[in-house]
Structures
1.
Amino acid sequence: MIEIKKLSKAFGEKRILADISVDIRDGELFSVIGPSGMGKSTFIKCLMRLLRPESGQIIVDGVDIGSTMSEVTLAKVRRSFGYLFQEGALFDSLTVMENVSFGLKYLTDIPKSEYPRIVKEKLALVGLEKVENLKPSELSVGMKKRVSLARSIAFEPKYMLYDEPTTGLDPVTTGMVKDLITDMRAKLNITSIVVTHDLNLALEISSRVAMLFNGAFVEVAEPDAFRCSTNATVRQFMEISHLPNPCDPEDVQKMNGYNGKNGK
Amino acid sequence: MKHPILEEIGREFLGLAEALGSAALTLRSVVFWFFTSKFEFRETAKQAVKIGVDSMTVTVLTSFFTGMVLALQMGRSMKNLFNEPMYVGTMVAFSILKELGPVLTSVVVAGRAGAVVTAEIGTMKVTEQIDALYTLGTNPTRYLLVPRYIAFMVTLPLLTVFADFLGILGGCLVAVTKLGVSPTVYMDDIFTYLDVSDFMHGFIKTFFFAFMIATVSCYKGLNTKGGAEGVGKATTEAVVASMVLVMVMDYFISALLVAVGV
């Protein structure tokens, strides 16, 4: 379980996160949505202490990593996390095989002879094959993201952080990644935190959705309750995403009319 | 009342203090991981090739032609003064071993390998590859910095020895072909008037230069901000800072070595 208490982060004089408090329960799929530049990526980077918060606590399985801690202890806590970066962040100088097996080398005791089998298995999970010997520069944007995902899940972490997992992907790959995120949770009981601006994705796959706006969560709710939220920012975001408020028949009618007019 | 110029000066000093503090923390981390982590042989060897072997051609050309021009100028000066190209070997070897060999090699390595290191680490920083290392259980200092420090510390002194040899050889070539000095006399001039401490004077300095170039290049790379433009800026800053620091450090380390009798 990850407990976040009064988490604050600023870059210089610009405040990005202000006193955020939320608990992320084991096994749940928690999505953070919000417009670009509102601190979503900052939020998940703080969870793994890739960014040091100004104040507040981040308690991962009882260990507070928010405050100062030695690099060695921090490294131990980080081992429970997998992280899918927005742009993939594959190591340019290494092949796909070396990239995907990187975490196995440093985070597990699995013998080296097992790496090719595990790498092939994880690559197959993300729909890739025969790419082991390619360098990241030889891959498309979508392939890079899938390799990055395979790298993150190779060592089967307890928590998985996804930073904009479907951005830049074609609809088929988007569907595959979406299924993979839900499968990971269902099969391996991995707790997932997804940061996205794709409200449809968040509402479809999450157990809870949080809306981050101006450094704070203005709404944290289960998808059904989120859809019915009366919060002005949430409503505005839903309207932009052409999603009606199911609890408001007038809104449903209005939105159906809009979608119908647009041939959706 | 705050004066804008004073404020600017204050800001610059604060920035410098912050950078020095941050560089010191990076250094502490390098020392910590150097002694506590497993030796990354493959990565270190790769870096030694990038930093040392790939810098060899430039080093060869620089030192060989420097030796040649030194012999030419000194031979001519001696001819003007004494009507004879005396002590050409002594002066070429003295200049190469004590100053030009280590300094020029360090400048070449700072410009070529230092730039490569900063650009590579800087690109990794702006594309989140450094963060990715953390997420995969690896400290970037351990995986990126320690191998590069070792590579710089091993290859720069070796390159300097190579440069010393080639510089003296270049000088010999000109002394023999242009000044009419026999190779025996040229070598005799060197062995009569120079000893091992003259070589050691230059050789010891290269370890300080290597450490400094590694620190500046890695620090600048790790603190790169702002995409491709930021990488270019960091690389330029690293090369300029390293080259200037080689010159500045050269004086102070030379003075120290002279004081202790090396």
2.
Amino acid sequence: MDNKIVLEMKGIEKQFAGVYALKDVQFSLREGEVHALLGENGAGKSTLIKVLGGIYRADSGQIRINGNEIKIDGVKDAQEKGISIIHQEIVLVPHISVAENIFLGREPVNKIGLKDCKKMNEEAKKMVVSLGLDIDVTREVFYLTIAQQQMVEIIKAVSFNSKIIIMDEPTSSLAEREVEHLFEIIRKLKKQGVSIVYISHKLNELVAITDRITVMRDGKYIDTKVTSETTVNELIGLMVGRELTEYYTRTKHSIGDIAFEVRNLNKKGTFKNVSFHIRKGEIIGFAGLVGAGRSEIMKAVFGVDKLGSGEIYLDGKLLHLKNVKDAIDHGIALIPEDRKKEGLILKNSVAFNITLTIQDKYKKGIIENKHVRNEIINKYINAFSIKTPAIEQLTHNLSGGNQQKVVLAKWLATDPKVLILDEPTRGVDVGAKAEIYSIIDDLAEKGMAVIVISSELPEIINMCDRIYVVAQGKISGELSRDEFLQERIMYYATGGE
Amino acid sequence: MQTKNQTTKKETNIAIKFFTENLGILGAFVIIGTIVSIMSPVFLTTDNVLSVGRQISTNAVIALGMAFVIILGGIDLSVGAVVAFSGTLCVGLINNGVPIPAAIVIGMLFGTAVGFVNGLVIAKTGMAPFIVTMSTMNVVRGAAYIYSKGLPIRCKEDAFAIIGTGYLGSIPLPVIYLAVFILMASIILSKTKFGTYIYALGGNREAAKFSGISTHKIEISVYTISGFLSGFAGVVLAARMYSGQPSVSSGAEMDAIASCVLGGVSMTGGTGKIGGVVIGTMIIGVISNGLNLLNINSFWQLIVKGIIVLIAVYVDIIKKRRLLKG
């Protein structure tokens, strides 16, 4: 793998308001190479690719393409120089066709100056076929699956004759099978001589698809490793700057009486005959495929969604929960799956978000006990080491891991007896993940009943005392700790009885 | 990067905080005020200042309600129509022999009821606030014309006019009402749970729902407040004009929205403060008054207002970009 170097970045620096986001960063890319950028949130990966893609301009440093030093002046200029970014969030126009999306802004025109749809569709079709895909180019993008939409993004990038394609967390919303499909396309692109900068937190993906991995930390270049000559542990070590001895924290502690139990929950079309229980100090996992109904069950228990029928017991007493507020007052907390949409109010501060659920604790009418308020806020900021310059900082400006800790704080402030966590570490970097695991363990040790929904099997297997597997809205299996095996969980998750 | 000292530092003087938060718009207000006072010596006389105060009081009261609605993430286009009908209704009732206090209460209740219906429909059906309040705007305006047969209703009772034209000491009563409402509105928004929930709902509805906030209740309450304030403004305005006029305050919703936007309330919801909204209303009031004093055709006011709103929104966008870096 000693192809010629198509891109070389050296000594790249970028400051925001006097703070270095990038300091003396280097990066090189060979022809037909898949080169990963790895680092915790805030390590500077996004800033670096934004410099490369023309969204930011570097304060200093050199960028060479095919040996010639160049300046990148805006996104359009980057595209003309053969660099395209595929962003994590899909940025297609939903209600126009695939072909129109691909040619957006540079539509072919016919003799009288109208859009030449026929030519556009033909060209688009050619590109779709050349990547071995099966997408109807005349269809509105709105009706495609997320995976297909992402393919359209890739086709669009290819159609610019891009020699360098940057993929920012391309698999974050893809199912396993779709990931494999994406990899096939990446391999095809490699063969065509396209080089790919690949950003992902999922280390197993990097091992599977990349040729080299460059690790960044705190805005600095750390090291570049050849993928076949490194290990996951070495990479994690480079990312966090220390060896992670205990990634998962699980201490032994006693498990008490049944704290929470649901019997025969039903909701038409969503879940059926769901019963489970959890003891004080226990951590139980809910495993299953995406869409199996795990989040829906918990949302109904918590009162966000309507519950069809069923009984909910807390400490042996039957509850009649009217709404979310009622559930919170009884000591149930649900940390939702999507922290940006359901967990946080990004326009508001850390303090605002942490205290949103506990207004009753320090406000009576117009009298506000600021002392109590600040005490609660500072308690969690210190306990979880939430990195924020001020408690009035907007949560929008925090990293993913710190945002997730704010969501945790917001819910723990309600003093729950039963804590339900839906994908507690999604989109969170390794360092923060380890911290969140340690917090969860700590809570269980103090007697809290903790329910974890997760799609990451290692997480569930290492953290939980017991696992329920959900498939198609039903609990298809229950496993105790000595029965934990990835294969068994997958067997139940895919509908085995 | 710890945060211990931040909390104590935050407790600084409210006046300073208000000043720094509204620096841009206060600056604009001072500049506009200075220009007008140089060009027209009458501008800064006590008489004129008080009369400006009385003129803007109607708009300011409506703008307070609008601020609640916009922070919630909605919009209320029915406010101008409510002003017209509640005033017309009140005067009509008085002329038909209903005791003045009862007529005043009924006028205000009518506005409150329209607000409640707006909130109820929006919360329960999920229809867009723009559409719902546009419909009530037309319905209420139409009803005002039908009720008054299309003509202004003159008030025969001088006692009624006092609530709009009277003074407390040397200060016009409408200015006093306004001061009370400003105080109440800013306390509600900044100090109460209800206020916090309004910001939460406007900032992220889903997250508010997950946080156990009863979104429907908050939404209905906020539109009801807006309706009440418009009803109040309508009754006071009718008293000031000695008549109920079905055509009055058409376009008042746009002035109220403009005041909010000038005052830094984001049209996407979730941010904004009462202090800014008040200054926003004052700017619009001073411009109108200044142009009047300078004998400039009132059509120019529209043009000036239009341009100013455009600039204000642009400033808001720049501010937001700086706040939400990256």
